[in-house]
Specification:
heterodimer; A: alpha+beta; 12 helices; 16 strands; 23% helix; disordered N terminus; B: 25 helices
Chain lengths: 417, 564
């Protein structure tokens, strides 16, 4: 079996050549109980915006799109529609007043394909439209010129304050940014400027402008609470794998190789609903979803050098990769084989906005997010990777926390098949 | 009258007619745990009677009618006697409730067989213009199916009765195929189908033997765990099974068949009590990685490991206790804490020195012989003694106090060994525990779900002990001792013989078992050769008269209850 995997690795010379060190391979079918002691691997069960444990901030919380819309109504309308039970009615009114559009492209959505949808002849049934086809669909169905985007796992074309936040600045009116002093993250630029936070453990100069931008949004704060996040499996469908190789001492090792990969397999739940530990995952063969760097382990804490990573983000309604530049991993390797820590790096604005665009404003949680507010704040607070042509920043410092359990990675099996 | 029947009522009566026409029943006396159910024409000649097991029933339906025909329903549970379900098959009854279940299953099968989408291939004829009632067609059907279903030719009277029943039922139901289904249901619930009934044949070298049809069944159920196929039935018809040299050729053919692995699997599933794993449940909070899927795959893992070693590679049975090559899939990988490259079944090789080696370290054994939330050296040791060494361990007295053993959070008695030691301070308990616990404690580095561990409540686990006056440390070492010890071999040989014969070991079996033991050693302990030796033994085909069964005219009444 080792030979098979070796051949598989050789079948991808270009991919491997791009990596500083050959990616980790499965221990092999002759591996001992517990696997190769020089390697550790993990599957991440949740990747989330880590919320700082700080009281007394974000009072009041940032207004969502629906709240901003409600505030824009007359006193009589507000009185009639402010009750929680009127939420759906209020959403409908917002859509009507602001000209939101939402059109299902195929069966499988609630309501199935929109009966009135006019689709281009070259769009095969069930296929995901190309960008050109999206534009054609928007034209054929009288969307505002140049507007509309795919949403809800590419099953819907929508036009609203998330797909086109620039068209609805009024919904950012009640938005606010995070003004606390504490945030998760790392000092990414080795500077301790005024914009920097203090980490929960006292680390100074923490760069996490993304949290500055979105840290008062209720939906992000709730899902970002580490206690909540630990019990949540939110990366199950297309999880991320971390593999560490070249381990001589699991507690202290000055030189290890760390590879972040996308998994081709979903997470299997155990009997109590958590992620099943020590399962085997095939690595996704897409080289874009793989990155390798060096790292070190000090007292059981892994820290890596900066590297660019692309993380699958396919959950619920979203399919929008998270692209982080200059990212580092800092994580605790736990005695039970698990891992807890974060990716700390510059989240590209394009990839973040892509996830925002796919949200649309529908849904109990989503209407609590003001996409225009988020977009404006991020545009203002972005602090990484300035585009020399435009002079604008293209990424924003961020902290993505994660939890993971021990796993085995079958790297190259896809190529072998 | 005909017009007043509901379909269901009409069918029930039709089935009753079928049963009454074909299967007058004799039952064993009330003081015997068995039913000896045979056609009246053969009742006085009845020998050992064995109920076919659920897997055998399912195999029979698939073989006769094809995999498209689904067997839906619950079967009466099999009974383990003297450690084997195969022995229990000659000691089980069919309750009235069980007969209802068989009848429900049979009716469902029969309806599928005559359904329009299967009719052409499985019935193959329709009533002709010259024979609108379908007498000839029904006769053709039962000529073909009767032999396969009853594993012997139909007697002319039986054939005539089935045809008559078909026509009578068809008239009552207004449909030829419905009548055929009713007669088929009767055949499927007849004792000749549900039981294997040996009949006397011509003597061989002074031995009283079963007849050729019974020989075909003995061979087929033993080697394939299935009823005889057309090849075997043809051989029986030609009398080939009565000639040792022809029998040897057939046995060689059967062993070379892919179906032989099914037979080996059936034996080890019974021998190792692997069917019990269906009922296995674990405390999810303590063993979250364990699930019903794990349990099912653990059984499959053991069976695949066995057939790989003993059938595919024609290996030494003793290596089962030490083999580091084990079937594996991704469901089981997490509990073994090993990577699994393939998405389906594959083989994993544990390296030398790994704590996993041999049967004792497989989840099917470790998890099954544990409690839902903790290990049990006593249950594990008892299983080793009883299953693999053919010893009998007495049941614990009713008033035994398990409080110390069950107190898993005892702050001073942190390990199971320590808690068991405290329990052994009671002399009455110690007498049995000293037989079971030393071997069970060797497996303590595997928790109640079969996962490896080195400590219990932070304390290092001691897995030392002794077997056959030899010191060992750990499961792998115990396996090596088993590999060199004659007792597991003796146990396997006599268990295989009891499995083949479907009864307890008798005093008159001693010479044949001794010879099989010697031959087994002579062939390098190859399981294939042991099975072949049994299949070629004249004693395997000897006719063994049973006690004369008491006749009971109860079948029609039971059938009435079942059918209606």
């Amino acid at each position: 079996m080792r030979r098979t995997i070796g051949r598989a690795a050789l079948a991808r010379p270009l991919q491997l050549a791009a990596l500083p060190i050959a990616a980790i391979a499965l221990t092999g079918a002759s591996g001992p109980t517990g696997g190769d002691p020089h390697q550790r691997a993990f599957v991440l069960s949740n990747i989330y915006f880590a919320a700082a444990p700080e009281d007394g901030v974000c009072q009041p919380i940032a207004a969502g799109a629906l709240e901003s819309f409600l505030a824009s109504l007359s006193a009589d309308e507000q009185a009639a529609l402010s009750a929680p039970g009127k939420r759906a009615e209020l959403e409908k009114l917002m859509g009507e007043r602001l000209g939101f559009r939402r059109m299902a492209l195929r069966a499988g959505n609630s309501g199935g394909r929109s009966a009135s949808a006019r689709l281009p002849a070259d769009l095969a049934p069930g296929a995901t439209p190309t960008p050109e086809q999206v534009r054609a669909i928007a034209r054929l169905n009288d969307f505002p010129k140049g507007r509309g985007a795919l949403a809800f796992q590419n099953h819907v074309i929508a036009y609203d304050s998330c797909t086109n936040p620039e068209d609805f600045p009024q919904l950012a009116k009640g938005y606010r940014t995070y003004d606390g002093a504490t945030a998760f993250g790392m000092n990414l630029d080795d500077k301790a400027g005024r914009a920097g936070f203090t980490g929960p453990d006292g680390e100074s100069g923490v760069d996490n402008q993304l949290w500055r931008a979105i840290g008062c949004v209720a939906a992000f704060r709730e899902s970002g609470n580490p206690a909540t996040a630990k019990g949540t499996m939110f990366s199950a469908r297309a999880p991320t794998l971390i593999a560490i190789s070249g381990i001589d001492d699991p507690r202290n090792d000055s030189d290890v190789t760390v590879t972040v990969m996308a998994s081709a397999d979903a997470i299997t739940k155990n009997a109590v609903g958590g992620a099943l530990a020590r399962a085997t995952f095939d690595a996704d063969p897409d080289p874009a979803l793989r990155a390798t760097t060096r790292g070190r382990i000090v007292d059981g804490v892994l820290t890596t050098d900066p590297f660019d990573i692309r993380l699958n983000y396919k959950e619920q309604i979203l399919d929008a990769p998270r692209i982080l530049k200059g990212a580092r991993i800092r994580a605790t390797l736990q005695d039970d084989g698990g891992i807890e820590g974060g990716f700390y790096g510059y989240y590209t604005l394009a990839s973040f906005y892509s996830s925002i665009e796919q949200m649309t404003v529908n849904g109990a949680n989503l209407s609590r997010v003001s996409c225009p507010g988020v977009r404006q704040a991020i545009d203002k607070l972005a602090d990484g990777y300035r585009d020399p042509r435009t002079g604008r920043f293209t990424a924003i410092s961020s902290a993505l926390g994660f939890f993971g359990v021990a796993a085995f990675v079958n790297d190259g099996a896809q190529a072998a098949r | 009258m005909k017009g007043t029947f509901t379909m269901k009522t009409g069918r029930g009566i039709a089935i009753l007619l079928a049963a009454a026409a074909t299967v007058p029943l004799v039952l064993a006396g009330a003081d015997r745990p068995s039913i000896a159910a045979v056609p009246a024409s053969h009742a006085d000649e009845a020998s050992t009677v064995r109920r076919i097991t659920e897997p055998q029933y399912r195999r029979a339906i698939t073989d006769i009618f094809g995999a498209d025909i689904k067997v839906v329903g619950r079967f009466e549970p099999d009974l383990r006697v003297d450690g084997l379900l195969a022995v229990g098959t000659s000691a089980v009854s069919i309750t009235s409730g069980g007969l209802e279940q068989y009848e429900t299953i049979a009716r469902n099968i029969a309806e599928q067989v005559v359904a329009p989408d299967h009719r052409a291939s499985l019935i193959g004829c329709t009533p002709a213009a010259a024979d609108p009632a379908g007498s000839a067609c029904a006769g053709q059907v039962f000529d073909r199916l009767g032999l396969r279903m009853l594993r012997r030719p139909l007697a002319p009277a039986e054939r005539a009765a089935l045809v008559a029943t078909t026509l009578e039922s068809a008239r009552a139901l207004g449909d030829f195929h419905a009548g055929l289904a009713a007669a088929l249901t009767g055949l499927l619930t007849s004792p000749d189908f549900l039981f294997r009934i040996d009949r006397p044949g011509a003597p061989e070298q002074g031995r009283r033997m079963v007849d050729g049809w019974s020989k075909a069944s003995r061979l087929s159920f033993f080697l394939w765990n299935a009823p005889p196929d057309e090849m075997l039935l043809a051989a029986a018809a030609k009398g080939e099974l009565d000639r040792p040299e022809a029998r040897a050729r057939l046995v060689a053919t059967m062993i070379a068949s892919p179906r032989f692995a099914d037979g080996v699997r059936a034996f080890f599933s019974d021998f190792l009590h692997l069917d019990d794993i269906d009922l296995l449940a674990k405390d999810a909070r303590i063993y979250p990685a364990f699930s019903s899927a794990v349990a099912a795959d653990a059984r499959e893992q053991t069976l695949r490991t066995i057939t790989d070693l003993l059938v595919d590679r024609q290996g030494d049975y003793r290596d089962l206790f030490t083999t580091r090559r084990i079937a594996m899939n991704r469901t089981l990988g997490p509990l073994y804490d090993v990577p699994v490259a393939e998405r389906g079944w594959t083989f994993h090789q544990f390296p030398d020195g790994d704590p996993r080696a041999g049967l004792f370290t497989q989840i099917s054994f470790l998890a099954q012989h544990s409690h839902p939330g903790r290990t049990s050296p006593t249950l594990r040791g008892k299983a080793i003694q009883e299953i693999l060494l053919c010893e009998t361990i007495p049941a614990p007295p009713a008033n035994v106090n398990f409080a110390v053993v069950q107190d898993v959070d005892n702050p001073t008695l942190k390990t199971t060994r320590a808690r068991l030691q405290a329990h052994l301070d009671d002399e009455e308990c110690a007498s049995c525990h000293k037989l079971t616990d030393p071997m069970g404690l060797a497996l303590e580095k595997f928790d109640g779900a079969g996962q490896f561990r080195t400590t219990e409540h932070g304390e290092a686990i001691d897995t030392t002990g002794s077997f056959a006056d030899t010191h060992f440390d750990g499961a792998a070492a115990l396996g090596r001792l088993f590999q060199r010890n004659p007792q597991p071999i003796d146990c396997l040989v006599q268990s295989t013989w009891r499995y083949a014969m479907g009864r307890r070991l008798a005093a008159f079996d001693k010479p044949v078992v001794a010879r099989l033991n010697a031959d087994f050693a002579g062939t390098g302990y190859r399981m294939v050769d042991l099975i072949r030796a049994i299949a070629l033994s004249p004693q395997f085909y000897e006719y063994e008269p049973a006690s004369p069964p008491a006749r009971m005219a109860g079948w029609p009444a039971l059938a009435t209850k079942g059918a209606m």
